[in-house]
Every structure is written in C-alpha cells, then in structure tokens.
Amino acid sequence: MCWRSSDTHRYSSLGHRSAFHPAWTTRLFSWPLLNQALAMLGGFLLAVTLVAWRRRTHDRDDEPEWATPAAAARWGRWAVYTAVARWLFYAASRYAWRLGIPLLVNDEFIDQLHAEGGAWAGAWLATFAVIGACSRLGWYSGGASGSRAG
Predict the structure, then answer these.
(1) Can you tell me the distance from the alpha carbon of 41 to that of 124, in angstroms, rounded to the nearest whole number?
(2) 140 neighbors 149 (Cβ within 8 angstroms)
(3) How far apart are alpha carbons 28 and 54 in whole angstroms?
(4) Helix or strand or coil: residue 3?
(5) Coil, strand, or helix at residue 105?
(6) Neighbour tally for 98: CB within 10 Å
(7) CB-based contact 35:15 (threshold 8 Å)
(8) How far apart are CA 74 and CA 131, in angstroms?
C-alpha cells in the first residue's frame, strides 16, 4: 500500500538524486515529494506496528502452510529469480537505450533521450539495477543471514 500510493516522481527522485542534473534538481526537493515521503514513512511505521502486534498476540501453530520455513525454501527460490530477472531486463533496456537501440520504445524517444542527456542517467540507473539484482541473489543463497546455503 505504501509503495503504490503515490506517483512515479518518488522513484525518479531516488534514482536521479546522485546524478544531479540541473534540470532535475527543482523536482527533487519539492513539497509534494516531501509530503509523499512522509506519508510513506507513516505507512511503514504502521506496518511495523501491526507486524509487532501480530507476533505478540498469535502463536506459531496457526501459521499457514505456505509460510513455514520448508515451504519458503520451495517457493522462495522462484521469487528471488523472478526479482533478479525483472531487474536485469530493466538494466538491459536502459543499456540498449544508451547504445541507441530502441528496445520497446520508438526512435523519437531514443533521439529525445540522447538530446537531453538522459541516456547517461539511464545507464547510471541500469548499473545500480545490476548491483541490486546481484544482491537479491544473496537472499536465496543465505548471504543475508551470514551463512551460505548449499
């Protein structure tokens, strides 16, 4: 609910913050974006509160079958691979646009992207998408818990 409640400017501001293109700085720190960030923070705090309450008031015995550790080991691998594939496809499209290949877009979009300097920003975001995809592989391998699976 928190992630779906606002528009795409939130994602743009997070991704382009480190690029510091002069045309984007006026959109990065506006009141509507700050308001959205505060609303999201409130949503996350509410979610954390509800999870803590549920853990205190419910037993582990009434846990659904799909939420058991054995079931998570079965379907978790596919969830991680799906997340990795999504981010690698995103990165491939942004790298293709940087190279002038109109992957899923028309030639006019590519020309406009290169004219405004946005192709480099897309490559920048694609690089971090690849880093994020690699970190997601660590979820399945057990790297986040400090032990290696396998």
Answers:
(1) 26
(2) yes
(3) 37
(4) coil
(5) coil
(6) 19
(7) no
(8) 25
pLDDT at 94 over 90: yes
CA distance 28 to 65: 44
Encoded tokens for 73: 């080991």
Q: Which residue has the tokens 């550790």?
A: 69
* CA 32 – CA 13 distance, rounded (Å): 12
Question: Amino acid identity of 115?
Answer: A
Q: What is the pTM of this model?
A: 0.54
**How far is residue 42's CA from residue 37's CA, in Å, rounded to a whole number?**
9
In 3D space, the residue among 127, 103, 113, 114 whose CA is nearest the CA of residue 18 turns out to be 127
Find tokens 């999504």 and name the residue.
86
Span 96-150, pLDDT tens digits: 999 999 888 899 989 998 888 888 888 999 999 999 888 888 776 654 454 444 4
Whole-angstrom distance, CA of residue 9 vs CA of residue 110: 21
Look-up: residue for tokens 């981010």? 87
